[in-house]
Specification:
- It is built from 10 helices and 15 strands.
- The chain is an alpha/beta fold.
- The strands form 3 sheets. Strands 3, 4, 5, 6, 7, 14 and 15 form a 7-stranded mixed beta sheet that branches. A 6-stranded parallel beta sheet has the order 10-9-8-11-12-13, sandwiched between helices. It has a two-stranded antiparallel ribbon with strand order 1-2.
- Helix 4 links the parallel strand 9 and strand 10.
Length: 337
């Protein structure tokens, strides 16, 4: 099969490091030659990419994350799914769908070891291959070990991770699931469409007060995407033996950085037997097959939904990231290329 390849494509580069709030003019879309592929490599036409909050963090330079920072003048990178259009690797053929980490461009030349073949039949929606389902599953299953009868509190519940975490918790047997979010509109969606029992609205009454009302008997599991005030409130309401999964730091990521320090009474945690566990997907790559099987099964039998917004065209990628950081959307934010 021969597929025509243009000589030029578009890619998104970091124009300047943001100082505080990210704006679309911190990025620029440029034309560049389509990359050439060599022995052991494949050329991929990207079909879709995702944007996530950590991308804002990576614009601040090297801050100790286990991934390379974005550099001014260079093309960004991030999760994408695309079609192999030319291959110099025996195991990959033109027409294969692959997931990789060289988004923010229309074409990518990649080592075969850098891509993962995507089974188009395993997930009913192409965009679901770019979900943050693995992170949500890991936080629920491996970090928090959600089990039957648990009351679960998910911070940042309307985001790409949180919108799936609450659903996974329910499938694992949680009897009450509470989520925090930034608006009544999102709260109504969480309860009306994603199966949450109650919501805590950031910016209304104090988080701890709202949480005590929503969970008068306390909470067994905290799935924390945010940190800061919301984590402290959750710890205050946690039952003896509660498990806390530390998954994200949205309280700091939207304006850059990853650190989200809070003052914790370790003595109280010890006496109440509360466990805090940070979890990173890069340490649990072995979980991908099981997590994706459960995700795909849930989508097919409609016990799970994949909330997301799609914008069309690489020119919309800077806007997509800006709107994500502003909290305009529910679930994942994807860009069709």
């Amino acid at each position: 099969m021969t597929i025509a390849v243009p000589t030029a494509h578009r890619e998104v580069r970091l124009a300047a490091r943001p100082e505080g709030t990210f704006r679309t003019d911190h990025l620029r879309v440029v034309k560049a030659p389509v990359p050439e592929y060599g022995p052991g490599q494949v050329l991929v036409r990207n079909r879709m990419m995702s944007v996530t909050a950590v991308m804002r963090t990576l614009m601040d330079g090297d801050i100790g994350l286990p991934m390379p920072a974005y550099e001014p003048g260079q093309t960004l990178w991030g999760p994408a799914i695309g079609e192999v259009i030319a291959s110099a690797d025996a195991d990959l053929s033109p027409g294969d769908l692959v997931v990789h980490n060289q988004g923010w461009r229309e074409y990518a030349a990649l080592e075969a070891a850098e891509v993962r073949r995507a089974d188009a039949d395993s997930l009913p929606d192409l965009g679901a291959h770019l979900s943050q389902g693995l992170t949500a599953w890991l936080g629920v299953v491996r970090a928090a070990e959600v089990r039957s009868g648990d009351t679960v509190f998910v911070t940042g519940a309307a985001g790409g991770v949180g919108s799936l975490a609450g659903q996974f918790a329910r499938l694992r047997g949680a009897t009450r699931v509470i989520g925090s979010t930034g608006s009544r509109r999102k709260g109504e969606y969480l309860v009306g469409h994603l199966g949450y029992d109650a919501v805590v609205i950031r910016g209304e009454d104090p988080v701890e007060d709202q949480l005590r009302t929503a969970a008068p008997d306390g909470i067994d599991v905290v799935f924390d995407n945010v940190g800061g005030e919301q984590l402290l409130a959750a710890l205050a309401v946690a039952r003896r033996g509660a498990r806390v999964a530390l998954v994200g730091t949205m309280s700091s990521q939207t304006s850059g950085g990853f650190s989200a320090p809070v003052e914790i009474d370790t003595g109280a945690l010890i006496l109440r037997g509360i466990t805090l566990r940070g979890i990173a997907g890069s340490d649990h790559l072995d979980a991908i097959p099981q997590a994706m099987r459960e995700f795909g099964r849930g989508l097919r039998d409609q016990t799970l939904v994949f909330p997301h917004t799609r914008l069309s065209g690489i020119d919309q990628a800077p806007r997509a990231l800006c709107e994500l950081l502003e909290g305009r959307h529910i679930g994942a934010v994807l860009v069709e290329l």
